[in-house]
Specification:
The chain has 207 residues and is an all-alpha fold. It contains 13 helices and no strands. 40% of the residues are buried.
């Protein structure tokens, strides 16, 4: 079972209304404009996520622009590229290895759409370089799953600390525990928290 999808603004509105009733502390974040942020499916999107790992939004955008300029956005091009070419395009040595591993993996991208969230995470994290955060970003934005909150995201953790008046930034485990009550609309809660983070810190939480 794949559950609900966030495919339209109406879906966001439905989820926001449900969350406002269930968790009043989210109200200031839910009142902000919540972008749908749907992205295409496939190799390019996972490579995009890998490229941006552990980088600021600006640095990730600059790196991805170099990757695009070099034409390294499909598996055939990545497999044909030398290590020097990948490095010249902005990949670190480790990320170049991850890019190659993703290209070799030959993931059945259309097939992922029919899998449950946990099955997608298990399938993607079997590929070197794809951790749970990357898999959940793909679930949230490329597959549009309505109940996915990437709890390992530092911006989400910080937004939760500010909004919920917590003593400290919650760990990934703690944020998952907090967000359990927000199911089946944790994907909407994530978008609200990212929006709140952006307003409170004047920084982007995710691309």
């Amino acid at each position: 079972m794949t559950g609900r999808l966030l495919a339209t603004e109406a879906d966001l509105g439905e989820g926001a209304a449900w969350l406002a009733d269930r968790e009043p502390r989210l109200a200031p974040a839910l009142a902000l404009p919540l972008p749908l942020r749907r992205r295409p499916e496939g190799f390019r999107e996972l490579l995009w996520a890998i490229t941006g790992q552990q980088l600021s939004t600006a640095s990730a955008a600059a790196c991805w622009a170099r990757v695009e300029a070099a034409g390294l956005t499909d598996p055939e091009a990545v497999l044909a590229a030398t290590d020097d070419a990948l490095r010249a395009a902005g990949f670190s040595r480790q990320k170049a290895r991850y890019a190659k591993a993703l290209a070799v993996a030959a993931i059945d991208y259309p097939g992922l759409a029919g899998l449950g969230d946990d099955e997608v995470v298990a399938s993607l994290t079997a590929v070197p370089g794809i951790g749970r955060w990357t898999a959940e970003i793909y679930l949230a934005f490329s597959l549009g799953r309505a109940d996915v909150l990437p709890a390992g995201d530092l911006a989400l953790q910080e937004a939760a600390r500010l909004l919920l008046a917590l003593d400290a930034r919650p760990t990934e485990t703690a944020l998952r525990r907090i967000a359990a009550d927000w199911s089946p609309w944790r994907g909407v809660a994530a978008r609200a928290l990212w929006a709140y983070y952006r307003v409170m810190t004047k920084r982007e939480g995710t691309r």
